[in-house]
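#struct-pred

JT: dropping the chains for the assembly here, can someone run the whole complex?
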Amino acid sequence: MKILVTGGAGFIGSHTVVELMAEGHEVAVVDSLVNSSALVIPRLEAITGKAVPFYKADIRDKESMEKIFEAERPDAVIHFAGLKAVGESVRLPLEYYENNIGGTIKLLEVMRKAGCKNIIFSSSATVYGDPAIIPITEECPKGTCTNPYGWTKSMLEQILSDIQFADPEWNVVLLRYFNPIGAHESGTIGENPSGIPNNLMPYITQVAVGRRDVLHIFGNDYDTPDGTGVRDYIHVVDLARGHVAALKKMEPGSGLSIYNLGTGIGYSVLDIVHSFEEATGVKVPYVIDERRPGDVAVCYSSADKAHRELGWKAEYDITRMCRDSWRWQSMNPNGYGDEDMG
Ligand code: NAD
Ligand code: UFG
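RK: done, full complex below.
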């Protein structure tokens, strides 16, 4: 199939491009580069040994998007493009709603006009809010999000569901990601946050590589075995393969489907610090700080539905995730090296 990957220069999108091409799909990438580097594209070409058609465009720019659809005629869209910084979304809600929701609506209009009605959407475990059941199944009711970023995901799920309901020609897959970490085994592509990382693993690797002094652990008084927050960390390559599996199941009339993409295993912050140290031999000094507003104590998936229906399950363990995160960071101490390092 020919797949248009929006946000394909970003962390998850770039790894998905590799896995799609490994399965024989044709790919074209659209990205505004608002949170990524053009240097990803030659690295993707080196990994895959093939050209990766790339359009620097904003999904909100309908004219450009229409031209791209005319040129590429994709069978399906995998839609990663969006802003994702939780704290920033609290400060800039309008920008987040406009980019993520406004951008997706424009993309959907262009898709409909082009007759391309197959979409896989990057949703998030954040839609469950403080989860009502653990492990979280897809039947778990959606919860109250604690920030505008989370609401963009929750609202876009609703918008996509409504569009599919109104026109059954649409096939929509909502993938709810848990916590992607790790990197491609080549160490040439990976997560490249600008400024101070919000997420745990990039913070750990930046401490390990000497860019930051110490990890701040946000609270050790949660109701968890060691008091620190528990999450479901998943290797980004496994996550990427989840998209390929979802695509394989997409066919006329498949309608709306929702899958968690996680491992089903919860690790605490201290588990991750210790696993990282054991896997890499590098020490990660830390201090315990206050809880971070909006964090939940425990969040991990039941990954059964994706296994049952898509035949997909995560393969890589926490040691592999830590090693691959570290390989990427140590080979690229300043990320792609072409932006403000914060
Ligand atoms: P990322 O920031 O690395 O990738 C997103 C890409 O989208 C970036 O390359 C950015 O430049 C691009 N982009 C943003 N707005 C755009 C626009 N208007 N037009 C064109 N391109 C635009 O983030 P990621 O971690 O790869 O996340 C991919 C998707 O998965 C996002 O939608 C994110 O919200 C979602 N998600 C991520 C996580 C996570 O922990 N990383 C968890 C759940 C969901
Ligand atoms: N943490 C620290 N110190 C840090 C960063 C994080 O102690 O410097 C802790 C957090 O308190 C939490 C855990 O590490 O207990 C994981 O935090 P992350 O920020 O890495 O991940 P979150 O689970 O908070 O959020 C992530 C994405 C969201 C997404 C959500 C889905 O950032 O976009 O997963 O579950 F919505």
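JT: nice. The chain has a mean pLDDT of 97. The pocket of nicotinamide-adenine-dinucleotide (ligand 1) is lined by residues 6-7, 9-13, 31-36, 58-60, 80-84, 99, 103, 122, 124, 177, 179-180 (CB under 6 Å).
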